[in-house]
């Protein structure tokens, strides 16, 4: 029996009623989901088929979950991939996903969906889950104790009789500006996640960042003097920590990730949506990270492709150059480029002072975020 | 609140909050520190050698005026043994350049330096006002940039000088880093931050001694030294990517004053990470970032947005084309591009063989140099269609604008 003639069917399958505009084509829901999920599917190919790695044995990947849209959608997509993998009797060994939740309420006071952790465990039974408070970093990565005091300098006295929670909190409050705070938090979180991944013997980390997050991250890193770190901060490949970094949602626009999330009711109770950016904040009180997220989202409305291209450009930089050898910063772990006579002599008094006060093991950008600096 | 003393000499009253690090300084200490920093940049990069003759690209604007003043001071104070002179380009923009040239003429007397003026009108037979009358405001910066590069070289040659210094400051360099990231221009990302930008195509090397000096400090220096400079900006339109980058950098500076230097630092680090095969591309053409100190592209964030919109459109088309191509993958560029390349060799990375332009004798990797190609277009009264292939092969930056125009012309019949 011939079905109802559609005057303007989905431009992809030509069968269903189109409901969404996907990169200027009108498509139906099924085709939309397929397209969006396929982007992440393709990015996981190497792990799914075990390309260039042992075909048997475990292949554990850590997925850090923030309850944000992107990381939750990534978890949803990868969980589906695992379901399909496991349904095949002679399929490839594939990968397994370990999820780490650094309890967001221990990072910033944010309202969270109740029972979020229970819900994700029910929703994604084929992954294993761990939730830890932020201050567990001091247990997982014992080096952090010493580095905290060295990094924070004289203004900070680490009281060893205090609990880990209090020690971390007092270190974080010793960091002065919004930019430095968010920079230091990012470094600590990265260390946390890396330490956990290593403890669990993971091969790599899959990050939820979508294209606009990565573009903002690229620009923010450049603005913070971390230009040489973009190669691992936003690119797929080996990080300085001996773990592979992957960003399976890198080809998706944030709007697409959001639309995808809206199509699965089971995600609604999990995702903690970011508060809309406040209009009343003075630019100078923002952190560089926030400024870049705003910049990318406002510019991205008009020029999404240009923003996507920022990350692609950064990905073309060679990580395996002279940058991946030599000393590593003892705080952020980046390789420190040994070039630049120039910037180290750029300000007659400022940097000279800086060099005198600093133990040499902090990189240029980490030195910028230290509490005793004026700027 | 009692007046605070200077953070350096502790005796005089502080009258300046330093933009770079917000330290409070007196007038004398600020001037001294500013000069010393430029001196240290010059020493650290071994920029000059004794007896070298230097042409200062002078526009009459704040950057080049400060550069001339500081170089004269340092040359005397530290006995560099340099022979300095001023070199100005007269683009022929009424109400802008004619007035600023008067400033340069006064500077030449004040600093007791010889002055050479090279004009577009004399060199090419076209002033920028005439070019704009011909091609319109859109894309006129392309002409100006190509012409200026050659004009500076020719001016230097006329003076027998092999080293031109320009007034680019840290803000300009940071802007260029951000802009090249936004444009996805890796070759320029690799080159943009180096202090000396000599190129194989020219005997004249360019350098920017104020590379680490903040724009705001340059203004303060000019103010406190009571320098005579001209503060109007070019009346023609700036480039959208630069405008967007400029706004962003001004915001960053508010958040963290050091971020301008941090971006320069990032740019230097990233330059080392650009793959060699990308880096060498189009070495002939250096970008003109408002040479001779804020000559162009310096309108505070005022943008037309056209370039960004164009690039957005192109990227979206590429993406769509890629999606359509999933079944048959061909190792050739997207079909859309073929149209513009039909008359010549494919646009591939090639090593450049340098010769001279057969018309004007300027060094060029092409039979006819780019300025002559543009001129031919102007002279034929058909600026957009006549320059197709040479430009496409010649330069990946300027061609992007031109290619689009060509495409439009071709597609539109």
Automatic annotation (TrEMBL), chain A:
Record InterPro entries: CTU2, Rossmann-like_a/b/a_fold
Record-linked Gene3D superfamilies: HUPs (3.40.50.620)
Associated pathway: tRNA modification; 5-methoxycarbonylmethyl-2-thiouridine-tRNA biosynthesis
Cell compartments where the protein resides: Cytoplasm
Principal location: cytoplasm
Record-linked SUPFAM superfamilies: Adenine nucleotide alpha hydrolases-like
Single GO molecular function: nucleotidyltransferase activity
One GO biological process term: protein urmylation
General function of this protein: Plays a central role in 2-thiolation of mcm(5)S(2)U at tRNA wobble positions of tRNA(Lys), tRNA(Glu) and tRNA(Gln). May act by forming a heterodimer with NCS6 that ligates sulfur from thiocarboxylated URM1 onto the uridine of tRNAs at wobble position. Prior mcm(5) tRNA modification by the elongator complex is required for 2-thiolation. May also be involved in protein urmylation.
PANTHER family listed in its UniProt record: CYTOPLASMIC TRNA 2-THIOLATION PROTEIN 2 (PTHR20882:SF14)
Full protein name: Cytoplasmic tRNA 2-thiolation protein 2
Annotated organism of origin: Aspergillus ellipticus CBS 707.79
Record lineage: Eukaryota, Fungi, Dikarya, Ascomycota, Pezizomycotina
Automatic annotation (TrEMBL), chain B:
Keywords (A to Z) from UniProt: Cytoplasm, Hydrolase, RNA-binding, Transferase, tRNA processing, tRNA-binding
Protein name listed in UniProt: Cytoplasmic tRNA 2-thiolation protein 1
Pfam families from the UniProt entry: ATP_bind_3, zn-ribbon_14
Domain Cytoplasmic tRNA 2-thiolation protein 1 C-terminal span(s) in chain numbering: 355-385
Pathway involvement of the protein, from the record: tRNA modification; 5-methoxycarbonylmethyl-2-thiouridine-tRNA biosynthesis
Primary residence: cytoplasm
Organism: Aspergillus ellipticus CBS 707.79
Stretches with biased composition (Basic and acidic residues): 304-328
MF (Gene Ontology): hydrolase activity; nucleotidyltransferase activity; tRNA binding
Chain positions covered by the region annotation Disordered: 279-349
Source domain of life: Eukaryota
EC number(s) on file: 2.7.7.-
């Amino acid at each position: 029996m011939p079905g109802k003639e559609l005057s303007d069917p989905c431009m992809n399958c030509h069968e269903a009623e189109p409901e969404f505009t996907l990169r200027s084509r009108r498509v139906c829901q099924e085709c939309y989901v397929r397209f969006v999920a396929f982007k992440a599917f393709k990015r996981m190919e190497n792990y799914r088929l075990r390309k260039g790695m042992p075909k048997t044995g475990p292949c554990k990947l850590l997925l850090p979950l923030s309850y944000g849209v992107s990381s939750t959608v990534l978890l949803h997509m990868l969980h589906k991939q695992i379901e399909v993998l496991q349904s095949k009797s002679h399929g490839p060994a594939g990968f397994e996903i370990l999820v780490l939740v650094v309890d967001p309420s221990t990072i910033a006071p944010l309202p969270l969906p109740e029972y979020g952790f229970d819900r994700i465990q029910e929703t994604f039974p084929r992954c294993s889950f761990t939730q830890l408070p932020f201050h567990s970093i001091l247990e997982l990565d014992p080096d952090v104790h010493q580095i905290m005091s060295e990094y924070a300098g004289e203004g900070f006295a680490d009281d060893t009789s205090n609990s880990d929670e209090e020690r971390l909190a007092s270190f974080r409050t010793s960091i002065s500006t919004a930019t430095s705070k968010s920079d230091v938090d990012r470094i600590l979180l990265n260390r946390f996640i890396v330490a956990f991944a290593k403890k669990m013997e993971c091969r790599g980390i899959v990050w939820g960042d979508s294209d606009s997050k990565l573009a903002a991250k690229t620009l923010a890193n450049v603005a913070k003097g971390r230009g040489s770190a973009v190669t691992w901060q936003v690119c797929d490949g080996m990080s300085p920590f001996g773990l592979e970094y992957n960003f399976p949602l890198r080809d998706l626009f944030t709007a697409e990730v959001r639309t995808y999330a809206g199509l699965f009711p089971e995600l609604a109770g999990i995702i903690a949506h970011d508060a809309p950016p406040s209009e009343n904040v003075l630019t100078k009180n923002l952190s560089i990270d926030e400024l870049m997220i705003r910049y990318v989202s406002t510019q991205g409305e008009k020029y999404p492709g240009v923003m996507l291209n920022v990350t692609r450009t950064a990905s073309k930089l060679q990580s395996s150059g002279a940058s991946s050898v030599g000393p590593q910063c003892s705080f952020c772990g980046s390789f420190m480029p040994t070039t630049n006579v120039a910037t180290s002599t750029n300000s007659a008094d400022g940097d000279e002072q800086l060099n005198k006060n600093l133990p040499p093991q902090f990189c240029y950008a980490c030195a910028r975020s230290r509490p005793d600096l004026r700027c | 609140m009692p007046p605070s003393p200077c953070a350096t000499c502790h005796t005089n009253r502080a009258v300046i909050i330093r933009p770079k690090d917000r330290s409070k300084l007196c007038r004398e200490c600020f001037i001294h520190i500013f000069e010393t920093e430029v001196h240290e940049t010059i020493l650290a990069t071994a920029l000059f050698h004794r007896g070298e003759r230097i042409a200062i690209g002078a526009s009459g604007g704040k950057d080049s005026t400060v550069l001339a003043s500081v170089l004269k001071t340092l040359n005397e104070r530290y006995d560099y043994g340099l022979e300095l002179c001023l070199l100005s380009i007269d683009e022929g923009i009424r109400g802008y350049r004619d007035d600023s040239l008067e400033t340069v003429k006064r500077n030449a007397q004040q600093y007791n330096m010889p002055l050479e003026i090279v004009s577009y009108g004399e060199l090419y037979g076209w002033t920028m006002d005439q070019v704009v009358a011909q091609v319109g405001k859109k894309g006129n910066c392309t002409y100006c940039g190509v012409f200026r590069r050659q004009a500076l070289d020719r001016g230097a040659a006329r003076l027998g000088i092999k080293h031109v210094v320009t007034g680019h400051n840290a803000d300009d360099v940071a802007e260029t880093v951000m802009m090249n990231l936004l444009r996805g221009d890796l070759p320029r990302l690799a080159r943009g931050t180096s202090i000396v930008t000599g190129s194989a195509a020219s005997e004249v090397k360019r350098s920017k001694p104020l590379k680490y000096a903040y724009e705001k400090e340059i203004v303060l220096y000019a103010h406190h030294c009571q320098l005579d400079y001209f503060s109007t900006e070019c009346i023609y339109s700036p480039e959208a990517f630069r405008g967007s980058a400029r706004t962003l950098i001004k915001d960053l500076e508010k958040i963290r004053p050091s971020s301008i230097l941090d971006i320069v630092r990032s740019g230097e680090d990233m330059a080392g990470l650009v793959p060699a095969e990308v880096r060498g591309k189009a070495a002939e053409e250096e970008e003109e970032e408002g040479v001779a100190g804020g000559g162009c592209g310096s309108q505070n964030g005022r943008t037309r947005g056209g370039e960004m919109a164009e690039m957005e459109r192109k990227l979206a088309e590429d993406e769509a084309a890629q999606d359509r191509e999933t079944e048959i993958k061909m190792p050739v560029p997207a079909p859309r591009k073929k149209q513009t390349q039909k008359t010549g060799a494919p646009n591939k990375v090639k090593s450049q063989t340098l010769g001279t332009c057969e018309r004007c004798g300027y060094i060029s990797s092409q039979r006819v140099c780019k300025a002559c190609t543009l001129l031919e277009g102007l002279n034929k009264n058909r600026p957009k269609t006549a320059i197709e292939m040479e430009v496409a092969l010649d330069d990946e930056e300027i061609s992007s604008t031109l290619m689009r125009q060509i495409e439009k012309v071709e597609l539109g019949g």
